[in-house]
Amino acid sequence: MGKLAITGGKPVRRKPFSPWPIFTPRERQGLFKVLKSRNWGGYPFPNKIAHAFAQKFAKFHGARYGLAVANGTIAIEIALAAAGIKPGDEVIVPAYTWEGTVGPILLLNAVPVFVDIDPATYCLDAKLIEKALTPKTRAILPVHLAMRFADMDEICRIARARNLLVIEDCAHAHGGKWRAKGAGASGDLGCFSFQSSKLMTAGEGGAVITSNLEFYERAQSYMNCGRASLTDEYKHRIIGFNYRVTELQAALLEAQLDRLPKQAKVRQANMEHFEKRLRGTPGLGFLERDPRNTRVAAYQYVFKYSPEHFGGIPRAAFLGALQMEGIPCDGLFYEPVYKSALFPVNANDWPALSWGRPQPLDLKSLYHCPVSERAAYEESVWLPHHIFLGGRKDAEDIADAVLKICENIEELRGLKHPAIEVKAMSRAERPRVEKRQW
Ligand SMILES: Cc1ncc(COP(=O)(O)O)c(C=O)c1O
User: What is the mean pLDDT of the chain?
Assistant: First the structure.
């Protein structure tokens, strides 16, 4: 029997962390009001609560207009369509992101072009964008993740110089700020998710924000079955779909937005304390804080585990041990999309991958993004935000568990354990064996 819980020792933590999502009588009253009104859906568009919430959400981030939509993947599709992305256009995306950032590009028959991430932030490396531009490039789609922002100064500079559009994926960045501007407001459009794990949630849901009236009008028509927008100044007539959100979701989101700033403070204070305890631990690394990121959106806390420092003991063993100490965690949170089991792309299914090219683009073999691959398969450790929503003692427990494993790492050498197997499993397979977190 060892000291670590995974080898038979006593776990650092038995008590559950803060539940997520959180609700109060505010949500209950909001839902009941919608039920009583018998006005539950998104039609007639824009429905009352959804419209009021979307405008408030947009203003909160410093944009003029907002739309509440069915989910975050659809938010990206709507933003791309609103920006006028056409079949065959190329869109620059970070290789290291959720597959839902990339799928909508293919869905519109455009072409994703993968660019590696910056090892200091795990976000799109702006220094590598220019090399990836071609005459077909129409947009850059940075993703703000790991409590960081992509370098929006450099991305907007490149976009202005080349007449490109910038669409920000802010699924992890509710309330975050770059140079005092809200997430999604530095670029042309911003997209958010309200899926269960996110900083604000209605179970599912999403939002698109913009300060450009033409994009706002086209987005409205696209998500509302092609109907004219409220203002209809640009008279766009396009084929659209039903991507509306329900009034029930919007009622939940109103309450969640009001609660966000207070929760953000708690989470960030606990995360800072956790990081202070861990800094200086040999074998652990931390992402850099950019002072231009003037307000942090504390979604998943991410740090780096160095297998080389720990004599080749793989990250999956570290994570399995951490889970057994009572700390929810993940490593394969994202993969480079081009290598991911959730991205079995076949050029025959997406005509734009062949147009005007001697050979169809084989997205799975075309790319090698070393920083993304190292982050995904070797070093990144992702901790969910809700475990930092409690008191200081929770942050202490998380730090104690990490340090305990670092001190007793040799117990993991060659160890086989179901908790380790799950942490090494592809995300396509894992839901069959893993307990639901949200
Ligand atoms: C970075 C990123 N982009 C897009 C999405 C898609 O959002 P949704 O799950 O609401 O469709 C997510 C959420 O899972 C995400 O994390």
Answer: 97
Between CA 59 and CA 66 the distance in angstroms is 8
> Which of 69, 73, 97, 189 to mutate to test ligand 1, by most ligand atoms within 8 A of the CB atom?
73
Residue of 195, 223, 299, 300 with the most ligand 1 atoms within 8 Å of its CB, for mutation: 195
Q: What angle do CA 267, 272, 278 make, to 5 degrees?
A: 130
Using the atom order of ligand 1, give the atom closest to the CA of residue 193. 10
Q: What is the 384 CA–ligand 1 centroid distance (Å)? A: 15
Decide: residue 26, CB within 10 A, 0-12 exposed, 13-18 middle, 19+ buried.
Answer: middle
List the structure tokens of 408: 């007793």
User: What are 325-340's pLDDT values in tens digits?
Assistant: 999 999 999 999 999 9
Q: CB within 8 A of 252, min separation 6: which ones? A: 23, 27, 30, 31, 201, 202, 203
| Residue 437 pLDDT > 90 | no
3 state SS of 380: strand
The atom of ligand 1 lying closest to the CA of 76 is 4
Of 373, 368, 378, nearest in space to 285 by CA: 378
Q: What distance in Å separates the CA atoms of residue 24 and residue 379, rounded to the nearest whole number?
A: 38
- Whole-number Å distance, alpha carbon 41 to ligand 1 midpoint, is 22
Span 209-221, pLDDT tens digits: 999 999 999 999 9
- Contact (CB, 8 A) for 85 and 238: no
- Residues 6 or more apart in contact with residue 327 via CB below 8 angstroms: 12, 13, 383, 387, 397, 398, 401, 402
Q: Provide the pLDDT for residue 435.
A: 72
Cβ of 98 less than 6 Å from ligand 1: yes
Q: What is the per-residue pLDDT for 433?
A: 81
Among 98, 102, 117, name the best residue to mutate to test ligand 1's pocket (greatest count of ligand atoms within 8 A of Cβ).
98
Does 431 score more than 90 pLDDT? Answer: no
The DSSP code for 379 is I
DSSP letter, residue 159: H
